[in-house]
Amino acid sequence: MVIFHYDKTFEGLLSAVFDAYFRKTFPDKLLGLEEIDPLFVDENYTVVTQKDKAERVWKALKKKLSSNACNMLTYVWLSELEESDRLIFQYIRKVFDSEVSIELNLIDDDILQVRNLAQKVNKERLRMIEFVRFQKAADDIFFAPISPDYNCLPLIIQHFKARFADQKWIIYDIKRDYGFYYDLKTVTEMTLETTSLFPGGKLNEALMAEDEKKFQQLWKAYFKSTTIKDRINPKLHCQLLPRRYWKYMTEKQ
Amino acid sequence: MTDNILEKLKILAESAKYDVSCASSGTSRKNIPGGIGNTAGWGICHSFTEDGRCISLLKIMLTNYCIYDCAYCINRRSNDLPRATFSVSELVELTIEFYRRNYIEGLFLSSGVVRNPDYTMERMVRVVKDLRTVWKFNGYIHMKSIPGASEHLVHEAGLYADRLSVNIEIPIEQNLKMLAPEKDHASVYQPMLYIQQGVLESKEERQKHRFAPRFAPAGQSTQMIIGATNENDMKILQTSEALYQRPSMKRVYYSGFVPVNSYDKRLPVLKQPPLVRENRLYQADWLMRFYEFKVDEIVNDQYPDLDLEIDPKLSWALRHPEMFPVDVNKADYQLILRVPGIGVKSAKLIVVSRRYGRITGDTLKKMGVVMKKAQYFITCKELPVHSVNEISPEYVRKTLTDSSVSSSKRFVTQQLSLNFP
Ligand code: SF4
């Protein structure tokens, strides 16, 4: 069995692809740097992550794949699922080893899996675009905590930057403890020093802008008034608006 | 903002909720420097009510006072209910503040008729105009045109709104007159025509000058109330098909009648809104818009009403066993699209990927095909052969309804209690 160890970054994974082609040995298993080898190892190789190698692989991929397929690979990576790196590696190998474009060959299990997983991540990305709720803080920053199943925060930043260009905002992934701050010009990645700002998914009341509570109250009232009682359907409701997001949604608090 | 705004919001949201059109798709609008928001082009739902409808827009009435007395409407003048009116600035501020918090995708503005159609329409136009010009708001705006409003007001509305709608409500004129004596089809079709003209003219203008103003770029929509009068599904769907043939008509919505004024003897007595029927109509509408079905394939003199137990596509397939089984490895896209259990997405996947090799039942499953249904209507070599022809449509129908019987049967029995006076 051939084992590759790498630093579990996307760049690292692409570097691993580069090295594999260079050395002409391909891993049966991809492990983190600290992870312990399984019992029967024939070959053990540690990848050194290098930006230029990663870039060369990515560039080569872009030549052979549509931008949509390249995006899918990013999405699969951000799924953070256990086997997603192996899947991406396999996919890239199939791309490089084939003369013709393979991205529509959904009869191939790896290719179909990449597509299906990317679609799941995309679904959550869209849900975040829909369900993110901003709360206005006293310093005029609009603040939105989230905790998606997949790491889709980087995928929604462009949307919010284009949409809320004239207000400062922070979207913060509480589960992964990082976020992005938009200051009316650029978006910067950031980490908060304390998470006590938002106990239970809500901005600390002492930090709220003067009007904030009022608008939350108005929104809740609107949400309630717009339900048609003769048609209430709790099962459908939960299917469309999964419970795990409620914590951050003003109307469900 | 005044303090009674909360009360007004409750009243006017409550009054607007029975209007079903609420989607936000169809235009994209970029943020302009110094402005608020953009429009994504695809439908974004920001929340879902407990009855399972999507909230994408702040759906609200400017006022729920009304001089008319439509039998199916909660806001009719003969009802004794709390009334309220928003000022233009209140409504504008509410829209902006909700939008900034990502609660909504934009505004859907309707109104009861006060004084006369034009007076009402003028105030509504002021709201959307302020949003666009004073606040530089680029979110989605859907405005309902008041039946009977004059052309210049409809035209002005179209300059600021993404979509305009005029509700038909009842597909047969005579039935409309019975329930809404002050309205007639002419007062609905006339503004529809203005909107259509506006859309077409602006399209033409914009081909000549790129910066010519856009007019209701997301087109128009309308809604029909289902089950308040005795039209059958054929009449309803034929009306929809005729509407879709008009160049600017984008969506027809079906609103299962909710008995809000049960005292009115002109209305049917219902235990529950006809939810299954409404759902079947949406499915049929979907078949016309995305599956290349003609209306008379779905409903006709022989089958004037949709089957409540099974969806209209399955229903069509069971009436046409001679079309099946379809070979997924060879058949045309259009034919694959007609297989129950195969949607637009999976049909496309099948067609692009079969060039690479043979598609098997396993691949189909992973592509999202509902094999429980599809198996009777397809062949792909290694599948056991038990097509609809061999085991008969009746048997397939029975097998497919048995498992889901509990929930849909319950609805069906409730629906059968619908009786017309
Ligand atoms: S005109 Fe509109 S608001 Fe007035 S009663 Fe008729 S449906 Fe209701």
Structure, described:
The complex is a heterodimer of chains A (253) and B (421). With 253 residues, chain A is of the alpha/beta class. Chain A has two domains: 2-124, no CATH class; 132-252, no CATH class. Chain A is built from eight helices and eight strands. Chain A has helices at residues 10-23, 51-64, 67-78, 84-97, 109-131, 153-163, 212-225, 234-240; strands at 2-6, 29-32, 43-46, 135-136, 141-146, 168-173, 178-182, 187-190. In chain A, the strands form two sheets. Chain A has a five-stranded mixed beta sheet with strand order 4-5-6-7-8, with helices on one face. In chain A, strand 7 (178-182) and strand 8 (187-190) form a beta hairpin. In chain A, helix 1 (10-23) crosses helix 4 (84-97), helix 4 crosses helix 5 (109-131) and helix 5 (109-131) crosses helix 6. The termini of chain A are far apart. The model of chain A has no long low-confidence stretch (mean pLDDT 93). Mean pLDDT of chain B is 90; it is low at 405-421. Chain B folds into two domains: 3-258, TIM Barrel (Alpha-Beta Barrel), CATH 3.20.20; 317-408, no CATH class. Chain B is α/β, with parallel strands linked by helices. In chain B, the strands form four sheets. A six-stranded parallel beta sheet of chain B has the order 5-6-7-8-9-10. In chain B, strands 1-2 form a two-stranded antiparallel ribbon. In chain B, 48% of the residues are buried. Chains A and B meet through helix 5, strand 4, helix 6, helix 7 and helix 8 of A and helix 1, strand 3, strand 4, helix 2 and helix 12 of B. The structure holds iron/sulfur cluster. The site of iron/sulfur cluster (SF4) has 9 residues of chain B, from loops. Chain B: This is Putative DNA modification/repair radical SAM protein. Chain B: Keywords: Iron, Iron-sulfur, Metal-binding, S-adenosyl-L-methionine. Chain B: Its cofactor is [4Fe-4S] cluster.
